[in-house]
């Protein structure tokens, strides 16, 4: 189950990786807001077909990987 302040990373198509922190968990853990290093907040949603977090509204965009314990 995702938690606020947990470390995560955004994996972009082509292999780029961006470190982020979970700032909100909604919809029983199916929607997450994360803050990147620049302070931008992005929303991710759990894709029921793949069980992966993807940018809300874009199943083919970057995906979110949860890394573990809060920072």
Descriptive terms for the model:
71 residues; mainly beta; six-stranded antiparallel β-barrel; 0% helix
Q: How much strand?
A: over 45%
SSE-based structural type: mainly beta
Main sheet: strands, sense, barrel: 6 strands, antiparallel, barrel
Uncertain ranges: none
Globular, elongated, flat, extended or rod-shaped: what is the shape? globular
Count of alpha/pi helices = 0
Radius of gyration: 11 Å
Quaternary state reads single chain
Helix content: under 10%
Q: First CA to last CA: what distance?
A: 16 Å
Task: Please give the number of β-strands.
Answer: 6
The helix/strand order is: EEEEEE
Record the strand order, biggest sheet: 1-2-3-4-5-6
Describe this structure in words.
The chain is mainly beta and 71 residues long. The chain has strands at 6-11, 17-26, 31-36, 41-47, 52-55, 63-70. Strands 1-2-3-4-5-6 form a 6-stranded antiparallel β-barrel. Strand 2 (17-26) and strand 3 form a beta hairpin.
Task: Outline the fold blueprint.
Elements: E1 6-11, E2 17-26, E3 31-36, E4 41-47, E5 52-55, E6 63-70
Antiparallel strand pairs: 1-2, 1-6, 2-3, 3-4, 4-5, 5-6
Concise structural overview:
By secondary structure, the protein is mostly beta strands. It is built from no helices and 6 strands. The protein has strands spanning 6-11, 17-26, 31-36, 41-47, 52-55, 63-70.
């Amino acid at each position: 189950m995702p938690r606020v302040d947990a470390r995560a990373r955004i994996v972009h198509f082509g292999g780029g990786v961006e470190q982020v922190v979970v700032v909100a968990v909604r919809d029983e853990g199916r929607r997450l807001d994360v803050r990147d290093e620049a302070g931008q907040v992005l929303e991710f949603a759990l894709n029921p077909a793949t069980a992966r977090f993807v940018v809300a509204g874009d199943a083919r965009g970057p995906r979110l990987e949860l890394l573990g314990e809060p920072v």
